[in-house]
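Narrative summary of target 7.
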Amino acid sequence: MIADLVDRVAAAVAAVDDPEMPGVSIVELGLLERLQVDGWTGRVEVGLVPTFSGCPALEVIRRDVAESVRAVEGVTSVDVGFLASPVWTVDRVSAAGRRQLADSLGVAVAVEPVVKCPRCGASTRQESLFGPTRCRSVHRCTGCGEIVEVMR
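Modeled conformation, tokenized:
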């Protein structure tokens, strides 16, 4: 029964999407660092790694995770916190997360030195270090000419 609660809590956390990346789970983005579930008391602690400390979506993510976990039968309390260590990097994004970003949003993940276009696979060149959010930059594909947002 305790293992079942852990699995259900893990699934609840995995069901939370990044509010700036609809359809992409915070787990696939590599934000989940620690999940502690006390099966006897129902107490849950979630430790997340922010993409960067000033991300405006942090409170939304905290709220969404807490609500999702609180809805799991057997959970009595939830504490969601953001950790200072380890530091988030794009290496934490899973292969499935990279596919979701590319297929659903046309967002590439910066794997230096060459960032590939998620649409056609050609290389890109950086147009602006600053994108729509602080964790993304703007590139242009040298093949198809499309603008590509790049997680960095």
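Helices lie at 2-14, 58-70, 95-105.
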